[in-house]
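Narrative summary of target 7.
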Amino acid sequence: MLNFAMPAIQRHRRALSYVGAVLLVLAANLLALLLDQQLGYARVSMVFLAAVLISAVGLGSGPAYLAAALGFVSYNFYLVEPRFTFGIESEDIVILIVFLAVAMLTGGLAGRVRDQARQSRDRAQTTSVLFEAGRDFAALGEEAPIARRLADGLARAAQGQAVVAIGPEIYASAGATPSAGLLEALRTCEVVSAHLEGPDGWRLRGLWADGRRLGAAAWRPGLMQSEEVDQFRLIHVLLDMGASAMARARLGQAWAEIEARTRTESLRNALLSSISHDLRTPLAAILASATSLKTFGGVFEPEVRDDLLDTITEEAERLNAFVANLLSMTRLEADALAVQPSAFEIAEGLDRVHRRYAPRWPDRRLLLNLPDAPLTGWGDAILFEQALTNVVENALRFSPEGGEVRMAARRTGDMILVEVSDQGPGAPENELGLIFEKFYRSPSANPNLQGAGLGLSIVKGLMEAMGGGVSAQRRTDGPGLIVALRLPEAP
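Modeled conformation, tokenized:
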């Protein structure tokens, strides 16, 4: 296995660099002999210096020192009189000593420059990996994407493969296939600052943050020098960053759950406080009317009995509508509203609402303007009628006695617009977007007419669930408000 045989490969790579230095010196010998025999040029020390420099720049300091030593021996043996011996004439001693010193110095300096350049590249890569990982960790807010990003960054830092285990979830880099033995080792790994040697060349370390174990990570290096301490320091820093990011994600999730519970509790309290009157009023009217009929039914005139029965019917319908609003709000909050879109006639819904509410408000005028051409909407007819009912009832309640509430429908582009205009006090410009929020109570409205504050918020949720929307604007021809319901036209 390639990763398992990494130490042997590393030794072979080092041996090959020294073999390369020997080959460069042999090439320098051949070139020096050629210059000496063909051109009669005997001062060929620069040829050997060139071999030393090439070894230093391309292979490193160790091969450069070897090339300098071999160049010194070759230069002395082949080209310095007497040739083919290691003897040295007195006039050539200085030349050989200077050659050896220059070769050693030049090779060492060039090799050191090469090593420093490689270290600079490694540090730049380390900085790049840490910067990108930190940026991605900061942008991610959930534990699973952070663990996946950590596995990819760890594989890049190790120049191999990586696996991150968070509880029962396993996140592996590209090409990594963890074995059963590795998964078992990850499950039990709890080391913090160091790492353990795992099966098949894997290295393991636990992921800890704030004194708690979050999981464990494993990496299997590729062709990386085992002496490169910076690489392992990079890996451990990356693991610490990933663990901190996952701890932050868990804290964020816990905080979001706390805020959600707080909002739910506040919503529950506000709901109970707001609907107590709206539930109690129709129940009290129904109970009083039913009790009167039961106790004095035989004494009352037929007109009185009919009036009491009408009161029971109206208040029961009012209570039913209020319960329907509560149910719709609950479904909207839980994202469990089932919308069954189909084509339906807008005029039929407007006409049913008109026939239902016009007799209930004899002191208001509820008008209906229908276009000549039929309008077919696309959505849920029952939910649309419920939304329209809430808008119309709200307009009737806030309109003064003798006031006019008008319903109209028209086509605009590929949408159908249903407008409900009233002659009530309206709302300031800065409150037009707020009136569709849950439990919003306008300070400018009559407090005696305030309800639970759910009607228009339910309208917004229902219309958006059907692919439409709702908006409000002040009337320009007098006091009042225009609420517009938008619904897609049926194809």
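The chain has a mean pLDDT of 78.
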